[in-house]
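Dear Dr. H.,

I hope your travels went smoothly. While you were away I took the liberty of generating a structure for the chain from your last submission, since the lab meeting agenda had it listed for discussion. I wanted you to have the full record in hand beforehand rather than looking at slides cold. The sequence, exactly as received, is reproduced here:
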Amino acid sequence: MSVQVVLYVLAVILIAVAALPLRPRGFSPALLGAACALLAYAWPVITG
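The corresponding predicted structure, in token form, is as follows:
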């Protein structure tokens, strides 16, 4: 599996966790999921 696929899967998992009624302290799973999705989207540009 490529790094891009791993980042996309991690993003989906984090966004799914953010949809749960649990509220973890100290970090936002939705924000981390969005960051992972953006990183996965930009991965080909970053790695050139």
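Two observations you may find useful: Residues 42 and 48 are 10 Å apart (CA to CA). The helical segments are 3-18, 29-47.

With kind regards,
E. W.
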